Amino acid sequence: xxxxxxxxxxxxxxxxxxxxxxxxxxxxxxxxxxxxxxxxxxxxxxxxxxxxxxxxxxxxxxxxxxxxxxxxxxxxxxxxxxxxxxxxxxxxxxxxxxxxxxxxxxxxxxxxxxxxxxxxxxxxxxxxxxxxxxxxxxxxxxxxxxxxxxxxxxxxxxxxxxxxxxxxxxxxxxxxxxxxxxxxxxxxxxxxxxxxxxxxxxxxxxxxxxxxxxxxxxxxxxxxxxxxxxxxxxxxxxxxxxxxxxxxxxxxxxxxxxxxxxxxxxxxxxxxxxxxxxxxxxxxxxxxxxxxxxxxxxxxxxxxxxxxxxxxxxxxxxx
Amino acid sequence: xxxxxxxxxxxxxxxxxxxxxxxxxxxxxxxxxxxxxxxxxxxxxxxxxxxxxxxxxxxxxxxxxxxxxxxxxxxxxxxxxxxxxxxxxxxxxxxxxxxxxxxxxxxxxxxxxxxxxxxxxxxxxxxxxxxxxxxxxxxxxxxxxxxxxxxxxxxxxxxxxxxxxxxxxxxxxxxxxxxxxxxxxxxxxxxxxxxxxxxxxxxxxxxxxxxxxxxxxxxxxxxxxxxxxxxxxxxxxxxxxxxxxxxxxxxxxxxxxxxxxxxxxxxxxxxxxxxxxxxxxxxxxxxxxxxxxxxxxxxxxxxxxxxxxxxxxxxxxxx
Lengths: 319, 319
Prior knowledge:
The first copy, chain A, is an alpha+beta fold and 319 residues long. The first copy, chain A, has two domains: 9-143, CATH 3.30.1330.10; 160-305, Phosphoribosyl-aminoimidazole Synthetase, Chain A, domain 2 (Alpha-Beta Complex). In chain A, 33% of the residues lie in helices and 24% in strands. Chain A is built from nine helices and twelve strands. In chain A, the strands form three sheets. In chain A, strands 8-10-7-11-9-12 form a six-stranded mixed sheet, with helices on both faces. In chain A, helix 4 (169-179) crosses helix 5 (185-192). The first copy, chain A, starts with a helix and ends in a 14-residue tail after the last strand. At the A-B interface, helix 1, strand 2, strand 3, strand 4 and strand 5 of A face helix 1, strand 2, strand 3, strand 4 and strand 5 of B. Strand 2 of chain A pairs antiparallel with strand 3 of chain B. Chains A, B: Mg(2+) 3 binds at residues 34, 79, 214. Chains A, B: Mg(2+) 4 binds at residues 34, 48, 79. Chains A, B: GO terms for molecular function: thiamine-phosphate kinase activity. Chains A, B: Its EC number is 2.7.4.16. Chains A, B: It comes from Marinactinospora rubrisoli.
């Protein structure tokens, strides 16, 4: 039998976990002191925090420790990128039952590290405590490198709406896991380890994006926040959504199983957790490779899809 | 009956809570976007995170929402101060059951705000999710204002050891609550709402403190981290510990109830969570008002009390 975190104790766990964290030049003081010290050369720091709770945001039977580490890091690092900033560091709080295997926390650490490496960040500190509910609290920090932060309230009528990254694959992957299907593998992987396009956040900011966010609750719901904050309407065209043969195949498998909506567009519009970036740009902007124009900003309010107000997409954590 | 957070939903709760957060000049972008933007004029940011779990770190029957907000903020803000930095902002993650009363989250917000105000900080962002276990994840940020961070590894033989803030009151308060006693009120208050001496962290850094930390697990255990990191021994004298008539009275009450150690010094040496600051200074340093010299740094390792190695104090979260 392997050891548990109860066997090695709080300080043993801290030593074991922090030994796995490589440091970077952005981390001036890493784990082991009262607090970390992280470079913030811009004179401002971007900071965001999210909690992942077992049973709500992941299931250990569907996602390994490494998957959970990737996902916990990704959803916070994507929030940093969505402000137009480059991620620098992560702080990680772990609340866990004493019988949790150290092999699982090792894998969690490796997943956090690997995802950080994709974004140019490093784990700079954290906390471990006992809890009956396995919970991971991640805070990500980032550097604007002199750029203005891209908020949600800057979209203007005439702007184009564009996305970068996959849409709907994570939601389809979750539906496949619920239905007991073992493929398409890319959709299962997208649910376990989203792949946000980190570098595109700063790039969109440099190109003059007027508003931006990462798609975490669903494209329609999240763009609804942009519409509300900016005092505009967002008009999406399903025909413009990026073609995705992997998602098409997943939807075909789900249809055969009698599980889930029949149209890929429904996953793309309502599915969250891929952590794609959605942004608005002035009409004259030449969109770079990787970005797809999916609609326009108009006078009005709310989000329309092919001219009609959509059925409310996404989901609320309490409602 | 009052409303619950399940009644108002995730976005209702976010709107309700963030409406209670006053902003400060350090918060450039506050709650409501993908991430906060916080001033970090120094070009470095101090960052620390802690989790508080119901049943482990607080009990709702002993501490109100406002108390828990004060405590959650205080223990993180104290970590920032212990690096020699001035706190600027807090990020707060709340994982809670849907039947939690909005009156409780309102009180939590008010406690967070009030404690931030004592330290010059403000709540800049956060997250709310559903969980069966009430959990609060707090991240605090701070500004070094050009000072070098004060670490744990700089204590040198010949340095004096000093503390600022109360010692042992929180532990005595917890023992009183466990014993069902309703006083002394100052000790119950110290357990519910510790009062770290925030401004003394930057002041100690300016005075040339060679090592510093906040006392969270117990004075002997925490100074053991300084000894280990610095490669020195810390020699404490119980006769030098600051006199505290309030603690003396609490210990007298506890002795009458047959609960807890009989000597105030034991609470001062082993009790954590007052979040006093402990620091080492070059011998020639004139200690300011509020700091009490309690020992010296010598060659060797570990912590001694009146010349003897102490029974292991403090506690571990898993062991």
